[in-house]
Amino acid sequence: MARFEPELAPGETPPPASVHPRDATKDAPTSVGRFNQTIRDFVSAWGSVWVEGEITSWNLRAGNVYGRLTDPDSDASIAFRIWGSVRSRLADDLKVGDHVVASVKADYFVKSGDFSVIVSAMHPLGLGDQFERIERLRAALYAEGLFDASRKRPLPFLPQRIGLITGERSDAEKDVLRNAELRWPGVRFRVEHAAVQGERSVGEIVAALELLDADPDVDVIVIARGGGDPLHLLGFSDERLVRAVAAASTPVVSAIGHENDHPILDDVADLRASTPTDAAKRVVPDVGEQRAIVQQLRARATLRLTQRVQHDIAQLEQLRSRPVLRTPDALLDPRVHELVLLTARGRDTVDRRWDAAARQSAELRAALRALSPGATLARGYAIAYHPDGRVLRDAADAPTGSALVVTVGRGSLAARSEGELAEGPSAATAGD
């Protein structure tokens, strides 16, 4: 078999002399540079080939495109590059999810040891099957109203405890915990680890979500995953997970991928954070900012209170400067003589009315005394009446033997009638 000797690109520095990889041994190893260069020379001998797949990553940097093509059937993928000169000849609407056919040529980077392909032509064949299914599901869920803003629940200002669903020992977990603690050192988390890609991811994330949703101490739940190939984010568009988030009673924050990633979870969650770091900033308030707000409010309250006190002092001084308050005796002195006169007049009026009432009372007593039956009896008269209380007015009403009661000026006595006299004493004689 022929050996591939290193062929240097224009301007490339030749690697240090070393043993060819075919001749390398433990005692005489080849260098990494020559080994990579040999691989590159071998790969460069390949010609261009047409491949079909779905665009699962498309990043534009400095006019060039860096992306990834994926086979939906086998999940096999390969990184590709499109130079700016080639990109200008391609369709303008190429994007993630497009099903394309591309002419590629293998390339191998000597310094990094990375393998990729260079695209010389690319033509769209339609939306990829997986992304097409996602878009159909997105449209159906939108029609159901699961994305409505009215369903979005507000996040608590300061959660008592934050539930976090993420991969074990992942960068996303570190970012959320670190940034949340920097913003509010006393923040508490309950972390549930779950697979964030692959076949197990949906079931484990749903189970962790149900566990955190049932915890009364958890006020908000964050589902976080770092960026990556959009193919690895397909689980976050799974209908089971999306509906579980919609049914949760606890507010859910979606922090999946980077700014340009958009799984369906972002649409149904109560809040979409662009990154895990952004989720920490959106869920936990900044203690420094809150202290500054408190200081501003205290300063504003102090200023308003000072202004109010100064205003009241000025009004009090204005009132005290008035003559009536400066010398209050000047207002009272003219009224003293008037008060004495009114008091004397009132006393005289009361005395006169008292004397008049006393005279009138004496006259009434005399009149009552004159009209009183007791006065008549005192002059020698008597009243005779039957025991049942009937006053005797006619002698014929007291036949012989009738019992009578006679009342005189001083007491009463019992009597019995001896009958009617032939000629009784006259009124004048009876009164003597």
UniProtKB/TrEMBL annotation:
Annotated OB-fold nucleic acid binding domain residues: 31-122
UniProt keyword Transmembrane, yes or no: no
Keyword entries, A-Z: Cytoplasm, Exonuclease, Hydrolase, Nuclease
GO terms assigned for molecular function: exodeoxyribonuclease VII activity; nucleic acid binding
CDD domains tied to this protein: ExoVII_LU_OBF (cd04489)
Location (main, coarse): cytoplasm
Statement: the UniProt record of this protein carries the keyword rRNA processing: no
Location of this chain's protein in the cell: Cytoplasm
Pfam families: Exonuc_VII_L, tRNA_anti_2
Catalytic activity: Exonucleolytic cleavage in either 5'- to 3'- or 3'- to 5'-direction to yield nucleoside 5'-phosphates
Region annotation (Disordered) ranges: 1-31
Superkingdom in the source lineage: Bacteria
Cited function: Bidirectionally degrades single-stranded DNA into large acid-insoluble oligonucleotides, which are then degraded further into small acid-soluble oligonucleotides.
Sequence similarity: Belongs to the XseA family.
Subunit composition and interactions: Heterooligomer composed of large and small subunits.
NCBIfam families in the record: xseA
Name of this chain's protein: Exodeoxyribonuclease 7 large subunit
Name of the gene encoding the protein in the UniProt record: xseA_1
